[in-house]
Amino acid sequence: MLALLPMNIRLALQSLNRNRMRSLLTMLGIIIGVTAVLAMVALGTGARGSVEDEVGSAGTKLIYVKAGNYTRGGESVGIAAGLGSAKTLVPADAEAIAGKVSGIRAISVVLSTRTTISHGETRAFARVQGVDEGFAKAYSWAFSEGAMMGVGQAVIGRVLADRLFGTGVKAVGETVAFKGATYRVAGVIQGESEDQGAELFVPWRSLQGSLGINHVDGIIIAADKAGEATRIADDVKKLIRERHGLASAGTNQSYLGAQGGAMGHPDDFTVETQAAQALTKGLYTPAAAFALANMPKLDQVTLEEMASTLDRASDTMTALLASIAGVSLIVGGIGIMNIMLVSVTERTREIGLRMAIGARPGDVAMQFLIEAVMLGLIGGLIGLLLGLGSSRLIGWSLGWPAVVSFGAMASAIGISLIVGLVFGIYPARRASLLDPIEALRSE
Q1: Which of 45, 160, 166, 329 is most exposed, with the fewest beta carbons within 10 Å of its own?
Q2: What 3-state DSSP class applies to 221?
Q3: Three-state DSSP class for 188?
């Protein structure tokens, strides 16, 4: 029977080709089902990726390293006041962190100054930050115009761009100047957030030259996973203490207390996670120290909550996918069964003739079963192509990282084959049970 398989496949394709429109309409249910499944998979992965990026940009993965260390009111809880300002944080510290601390997604040194920015006769007093591409990655920048800056270029917030160039005016290509340096605008950050919408960003080396300094104000770090933020912060503290010649901190210190160093040597820098910063905002030092001591794994809790939310959303999407796929593929399978029963009726004399010249019931059943499987397979392949096109369209229109995995594609084709096989069994069996003599008599 296997030796006849190539011939049966060829006969099945010839039969489908004789009634192209009917075959296409029969496959329509399978095509719609597979297309819908792949499009929804792309939508689900894209939505999940977009939510993860938004959560990341909200700050749960960020760690701040700041030059200087002053803890107001810390004496009452045994926290050294530290150094109010320091110039010991340098770009080499960021390079060492990037090379020796694991789990870092992005890192950038940060310089900051407030100055008057001019564009022709228009002036605005705003913050200028010196950063690099790691800063953009850490905050998941999205550009409403242009792209990331290069040498001699700047990125501007939407609010500041409207103040300098006018509302609705295209900012890319315009020039801005401050402290004797001129920059061409390469991109405009999407959105109007208070912290970055009214700021100008330039390469940090250029800003160092304008300010005539060699140190930096801080380092921004984005953890690859939010639950790693506290561990990365601890590793960064240890590394910078070693680089700055400070004594190692004791092992039994609170989060905030560790900022004061150990053995009478206050740190000349501050390390803080975004989660801890949000928790202690507005609190006096003793209250902040108490809050952090009772929430030592705040970022891990945040990660667990985020993962739980994403998992629930993913489960809901999976259930939706299953229902859509089930209904569409069942409808497609019923269509295949229906058309195969019609085909058996139309080809009764052909079946009788084949049996009369020696074909066995199993050969007849195999012929019709392969024809049903080919309907499912071809429908699945067409649906696969349409589904991949739909996923690309979804990703392009929504700006989401819509991706369809190879496993999802293979599953779609496999299910199409199974549907054709299952719903083709009854028509194939009915054809094999025909009486040859009665079949030859039929009109």
Answers
A1: 166
A2: strand
A3: strand
